[in-house]
Design a protein that fits this description.
The protein is α+β, with helices and mostly antiparallel strands and 382 residues long. The protein has three domains: 86 residues, Rossmann fold (3-Layer(aba) Sandwich), CATH 3.40.50.20; 59 residues, ATP-grasp fold, A domain (Dna Ligase, domain 1), CATH 3.30.1490; 198 residues, ATP-grasp fold, B domain (D-amino Acid Aminotransferase, Chain A, domain 1). The chain is built from eleven helices and 22 strands. Strands 10, 11, 12, 13, 14, 15, 16, 19 and 21 form a nine-stranded antiparallel β-sheet that branches. Helix 1 crosses helix 9, helix 2 packs parallel to helix 3 and helix 4 packs across helix 5. The longest helix is centred in the middle third of the chain and has 18 residues. The structure holds adenosine-5'-diphosphate. The site of adenosine-5'-diphosphate has 19 residues, from strand 7, strand 10 and strand 15.
Length: 382
Amino acid sequence: MSDINTLKIGVLGGGQLGKMLYQAGSRLSMNISCLESSADVPAAVVCPKMVNGSITEYEDVISFGADKDIVTIEIENVNIDALYYLEEKGVQVYPQPSILEIIKDKGRQKEYYLKHGFPTSPFGLYRDADDIERAIVDGNLRYPFVQKARIEGYDGRGVVIVRSESDLDLLLDTASVVESMVQIDREISVIAARNTQGELKTYPVVEMEFHPTANLVENLFWPSALDNETQDIAVNIAGALAEKMGIVGLLAVEMFVDTQGNVLINEVAPRPHNSGHHTIESCVTSQYEQHLRAITGLPLGDTSILMPAAMVNLLGEPHHSGPARYHGLAEVMKLAGVYPHFYGKKETRPFRKMGHVTITGSTLSEVRDKSKMVRNTLKVIS
Ligand code: ADP
């Protein structure tokens, strides 16, 4: 291992995940730069080494990565060909481009789970909306089902629930995965970490509650109230998947627990994840530090829960667009164990992720009460 402070680490993307990654590395004075095409991004507030360029452009990614020891990502939508090139030239690229290529495409992800025996809902792959409609007419596809764009869907964009013929207008005309509708009891996430030497650690289960219309995680908490056996199954799935893929870095595994108690993989993200924000305040090792430990070959940190916690996503209020203001901040900051994180985005839009708040307490019910208060009080308006 080279000296941790001289290793040049490049991060593709300068959003909020890049910002928090930089902050975690800053305690160890890691040498981190971020590639972003706009100067007005969350990471720019903390990172003095912002490099101007597009993470989806071959040439930009190559010229950014060429002098780095390690290149990593904070978002999947990057130029993978450029990452293959850099890997060939000896740059350590984590997550590895071959894994990114599978994960970036929801169809290939599902095929991977099927091929390697990981539990996931039944699915089919379709070329476009016509292809789906034909399958319905031919009797090969039945309502209800969930259509997902194979690439570039995120935060619920690119996901359509089709319950009956009257929803067919909603179909996305793009290459898609069509999944059976799962009777979801709970949505959970487990983050696994694997370092360059193959050491593996998993975080405990997080429970996620979604915004009913925006399809974004609105609230999450831990420890989970699920029975221990189901939690063990979920943690083992996440660990086994990280091991099977051989990923270096984090793998956030989103899962459903259905009404029969089955645990099914929904999708994964090979990077720090929204479902791990609360690890900054409520876990021995934050997911951001863990990612950096993993990719630089340091020993992985302890993933024990320090105290119960919730995370409330701060979404732009509906009907508010324009320069962002935070209403109710003084009130929530009077409470102990309330940690607002603002991403520094200047403009708010309906449901835009503007920040999050971590709430800690000595019991889950105390945490739930405080998070309800935070959700009702702190608003992002224009
Ligand atoms: P995104 O990548 O945009 O987050 P997801 O694949 O996580 O998309 O889907 C968004 C949400 O849609 C999930 O959190 C879940 O609530 C719902 N959903 C996704 N797939 C299914 C399914 N097969 N059955 C039932 N609900 C689903």
